[in-house]
Amino acid sequence: MLKEALQKNLDYEELANCMRCGFCQPACPTFRETGYEAASPRGRIALMKAVADGVMEPDQDFVDQMNLCLGCRACEPVCPAGVPYGQLIEQTREAIEQVQEHPWYVRLVRKTAFTHLFPHQRRLNLLGGLLGFYQRSGLQTAVRKLGVLNILPKQMREMEAIMPDASAKSLTDRLGATVIPAVGERKRRVGMFHGCIMDVLFQDTNINTVRLLAEAGCEVVIAPDQVCCGALHAHSGEREAAKSLARKNIAAFQEAEVDLIISNAGGCGALLQEYDHLLHDDPEWQEQAKWFAARVKDVSEVLTMSAEPQAWDPLPQRVTYQSSCHLRNGMKVTKEPVNLLQSIPGATYVPLKEGDRCCGSAGIYNLVQPEMAGSLLDEKMGHVAATQADILVTSNPGCLLQMKAGIKRAGLEDRMEAVHLVDLLARVQKKEAN
Amino acid sequence: MLSDAIKAELRAIVGEKNCLDRQEALVAYSYDATPMQQALPDAVVMPASTAEVQKVVQVAARHQIPIVTRGAGSNLCGGTVPVGGGIVMSLHRMNQIVEIDEQNLTITVQPGVRTVDIHQAVEAKGLFYPPDPGSMVISTIGGNIALNSGGLRGLKYGTTKDYVLGLEAVLPNGEVIRTGGKLMKDVAGYDLTKLWVGSEGTLAIITEAILKLIPKPTTQRVMLAMYADMEQAARSVSDIIANRIIPGTLEFLDQGTIRVVEDFKQIGLPTDVAAILLIGQDGEAQIVDRDMERIAEICQKNQAVQIKVAKTDEEADEVMTARRSALAALSRMRPTTILEDATVPRAQIAPMVAAIQEITDRFGLNICTFGHAGDGNLHPTCMTDARDHEEIERVEQAFEEIFAAAIDLGGTITGEHGVGIVKAPYLEWKVGAAGMEVMKGIKRAFDPHNLLNPGKMFAKESRNRVVVNRA
Questions:
Q1: CATH number of A2-99: 3.40.50.970, 1.10.1060.10, 1.20.1050.10, 3.30.160.20?
Q2: Is A35 close to B336, i.e. CB distance below 8 A?
Q3: What reactions does this protein catalyze (chain A) (predicted)?
């Protein structure tokens, strides 16, 4: 039963550490949207604790409230008591998942995605190939013209419309090597974490990341046995699956003997950095997990590490930045992306009002909670429009897709584009460097 | 329990979505920021207008149902915990700034507006609403008024009561009345405005407020002064005031707090000093500079071992970090953090800190003290664990002695957090038996059936305690 599963899963010490000051509430998107106590981190923790204490039966309202959480973790940096809310919500979702009876089609989708797809990069690339065929064969155009997509919910239609071109090839195929030498003096040997979705839908971003890293003096290794980071699994209550992926990644990068492990997706990086916590009850893997977690960095951190800043070509445009929640609240990377944008000559950096607030993408949240995600996105696009920027920069694939969808939805396509930080930097990379 | 018929009446007033009795809602509105206080209401009602509040009160009055009015639930006295069950009425939907009047320098607000939103709205116009309780990023103005909230600027600018000019409120019998107005002078009858400020939702439900604004100071500067001896820090405080300087901020951290903050933040605070004063001044640049110079001299004269005057905004930020991190640093030590607010005349700060230390040691507890030195409002903060019943018993005894010590020094049991549930047993120590009778009489006059926030302010007889004779 859910009650027992929750009582077993939840870390009671951390529940007790919440002192209910409420300082998390202004940071919480769902609280701000509703004003409803239960839809806030303090409220959700109180509900978890009430179940753990046996005061409350975890009914459907409880489950719905836990699912309404974006998991953006904006509540963590503002918590005086340092309660790891992200862990608590994952423990809760894991318990819900353990007992949840899904309808057959949801079971099928989950099983396909979490067991048969994300853990297998080759299958993902194959799927990418099919998607690429759909996009390039004229099928996509035909399907759109026929209005077939109108049977899909609005949110999914919006996503289909902005889906980037998928790649069927693997990253190493396209780079033609598994080790890319540093340009100039080798300062460090880094492992490129290419991600699963990232490597299918945003492979150019991965290629650009490798090039920028090499330019910054990194010898870049593409560890061949790496797999999906497991974040989508962990956030969806599939913790055991996430652990198994973590073990594979740790082994893959230890084998590669790297100084640092580089992520260009905040959502992946935050979980990679928490592998030590994910495997905390696995004594066999504890040490290796710590080794791994301590080495994880976002690409923006490495690019700002070098003593002599990189020289960029001038870019006479206005740029603004929407933070990735897990990059900001999980990896605690806040200044580096902005510093990089400000280092581009000629570019005018305009701060985005509430650029530290979740865009509503949140993994697959925008698909399962379209109403809340949509209202967060509309609010976001209002602030984006106010910057009058030409380029909206972000640092995570989910956010990037959501921002592309948002730009279309707000009718701003003619005025601005959404770009991954790495792709923008590649655009202004000194031409002689290539 | 509320009958289905009563719930239907309430739903007809506020709408289906805004009258909740599902388990999730009852749990979520069963607590506030006070440790170890929780009680389930029978329903949560979220009205959007004065008219809706009035109708809800009329239903409650007809059926004799208690109403606990609530804003953000950030108070520390159990003020919004529905100990008598009934209806929790959350006013978060009444969150509009009605008007900023630049001719009369007033702002008119609904009770659900956050304190920080008032700050931002008026400061954008070069105006200033000084009260800044520690919870201002979440607290609502309705809650601030109900508890007469203070904050860091209390010494120079006063507290919430000094800025409330007029109120609209729903009485327990369902009548709506207005008091005061955009008036600096108004002596027409009893001052109901001031009576309601700090009445903790026991007399009336505030549905609108007119607040006084002042021009925003143009310059702000801060400094830190560190002392090897608590007495010297306390003397500096008295000397600054005696020299006719009223600082905008005059905060204090004791050694325990300094050590915990340094451990947590590593900002280079010396952990061997007995006390740190954080002193800020605001106003016209010239006057601020002159005051800061004189304050530094006074601190020097009182053997401050180190003085750091912030020269830039970044330095000011660093200086403020020590104070801002105090609660976070302390609350990470143990699961339960009990933050009290015993207050003494400012000349009694040194003996009060010494008394707290002595009591802490005697009961073998972990209590650190920081707070508003300028107005004598201290925050002895106990790090403990609610699950350890034996320790909690000692904590209660220790705080009882701390309150008694404050009263002996001419102080009070609560400077800014309010009485609520947690201080109710001690209220008589401060106001006396005759004072209690007057207060109870006032309560009866407004709310003869004890429907508004029952169980607050006045302890039930079973919880009454005998005054400790410390003579």
A1: 1.10.1060.10
A2: no
A3: (R)-lactate + A = pyruvate + AH2; glycolate + A = glyoxylate + AH2
